[in-house]
């Protein structure tokens, strides 16, 4: 199995690199039927979207079934509560650390200083009304679970799935056939994930090629300092915060861990969607990292919804970028408000492309910065979004490994091999 996975990893990386090169070449071509109709909106769009829709097709059933399994198989409701509290504390703590890293980088690297505003193409924005935290909390409970699944409302699906799992656990032997049914359904969905992942190299090629054929690199030049600052923050968080937590709490080699998790990172980079990566992350966590299904099926879907460290880093740096562009001075009080608001905003950020930028409006409003500033960076957000999604889903996997180790449900032999 490990050999097969290495082959898949290599093929996905080749697809990613070929997509990058092809996209930049196509970007340089003159506009016309071949470039716009046949390549960008034809071949690239077709193969990219077929793969993405294939993955997204499995997300809702997989999240629901795996969470029901996870909650039911823990047996002890106290253990479920203990794992839940540990998971949420881990996610919120690393998100707060991510915001602090972002603000430090924004303060010292000053990505918005010396920027020629005329060189940036501003995009008009339509910002949805801000949702109060209280409303966000009570809307986690679905009025209609079927509607929540149809709409892909992940927080509501998670709440209903956990309650269903707890109910099955409490009923015990009376519902053994239902527990077995959910286990079989989980096996079926994971097999479907394997089938879809056979097309990953081609799908990744299409998604990346279309992104770079559309964006190119000319739009990057004025904002290169902002982009580089975000990626520096993402790399620091990935290798020092996550790497340190992984080594400190599990004694696993971060190098080995990341190498095994590379296929999920590649899917995250190409799709820019945490939700789309859930099926791949779960498969790798269980089969390659030796994490028990009980823990992985609980923490990874939850993380795809509430753990957005990469998004928090982007938001923290974007706050300094926009403040510097418009000549605002940030006070200590404003910075503390950003830390709190960005941490809470990350919980409400949907795991779909571009959602983090829209949630940035909530952070800017909290300290009185002009939300029009988002228009400066939204044009290149897809390139930043790909990197921050990789950070988001890697954090989910690291948390899962840490919790599994503490609960005695991490197979060190498998994880270290």
Task: Tell me what the structure shows.
With 417 residues, the protein is an all-alpha fold. It has 18 helices and no strands. α8 (200-215) crosses α10. The longest helix has 41 residues, at 33-73. The radius of gyration is 21 Å and the shape is globular.
Task: Write a concise synopsis of the structure shown.
This protein has about 425 residues and is mainly alpha-helical. It contains 18 helices and no strands.
Question: Which geometry do the CA atoms define?
Answer: globular
Please, how many helices?
18
Average the pLDDT over all residues and give the rounded result: 85
| Relative helix content | over 70%
The share of residues in extended strands comes to under 5%
Give the N-to-C terminal Cα separation: 12 Å
Spans of at least 5 consecutive residues whose pLDDT stays below 50 are: 1-5
